[in-house]
Amino acid sequence: MKRSIYLFSILVLAMLSFKIIKSYGFDPKPDILMDLEDEQIKANEKLITAQILSESLNRVYTIFENNLATSSQDAVKKEESVIFLNHLTDILETLEIKTIHLAPDAKEKFRNHTKIPYELTIECSFDKFGKFITELERHNRIIVIDEYKVKNGIERISLASSPEELMEQIIEMKISTLTLNKHSG
Q1: CB 108 within 8 A of CB 181
Q2: Pairing with 173, which of 34, 66, 105, 134 sits 20 to 30 Å away (CA)?
Q3: How far is CA 114 from the centre of its chain?
Q4: Model's pTM, two decimal places?
Q5: Do the Cβ atoms of 77 and 141 come closer than 8 Å?
Q6: Residue 126 and residue 141: Cα distance in Å, rounded?
């Protein structure tokens, strides 16, 4: 019995001394290394933020570059309406959105930009309308949604023959493309 007590005491003493030596003699990391790790984490977060901002700024620069006309005879102004209408109809066809009406209005010239408005009437679900807006947002031209109206009156409900018919909405939109005018001098 005495022998078991001695062995147990030696074991407890060995464990305590090992813990004391480990905590004071073998510090897992000096404080300076822990501080440097914290600084590195903060620097990495700033780097990631800078990379995200850089990508966003590159996209903004590309949009401005694509929408900058250097003179009144610039090809950007001349061809933008046809190119944009082709792209717009491609988006509508891809999303399987029924086009009821699509027409450009007269150009509006301002000091710093030229605005080409378009009238558009489509028939689609709200889900497809959201996808359409997202596609417009991705376009390399500056596109402004001036106005949209959802034709969803009571008479529409009474005329619908099925619930699926009610899912399709008639949406009238006025959108515009902007071309920035570069001033010489």
Answers
A1: no
A2: 66
A3: 26
A4: 0.56
A5: no
A6: 24
Residue 77: partners with Cβ closer than 8 Å, 6 or more residues away: 69, 114, 179
Q: Half-sphere exposure of 65 toward its Cβ, with a 13 Å CA cutoff?
A: 6
CA dist 89 and 78 (Å) reads: 19
Which residues neighbour 171 within 8 Å (Cβ) at sequence distance 6 or greater? Answer: 121, 122, 123, 124, 129, 148, 149, 150, 151
Q: CA-CA distance, 101 to 119, in Å (whole number)?
A: 7
Residue 27: partners with Cβ closer than 8 Å, 6 or more residues away? none
In the predicted model, is pLDDT for residue 185 greater than 50?
no
**What average pLDDT score do residues 136-141 get?**
85
Q: How far apart are the first and last CA of the chain?
A: 104
Rounded to whole angstroms, the Cα distance separating 131 from 129 reads: 5
Q: Which two tokens stand for residue 2?
A: 């005495």
Domain ranges of the chain: 2-63, 67-181
> Residues 6 or more apart from 121 whose CB is under 8 A from it?
99, 100, 101, 102, 170, 171, 172, 173
Per-residue pLDDT band for 172 (boundaries 50, 70, 90) equals very high
Where do runs of H (alpha helix) occur along 116-178?
126-138, 154-159, 163-167
Fold of 67-181: Alpha-Beta Plaits (3.30.70)
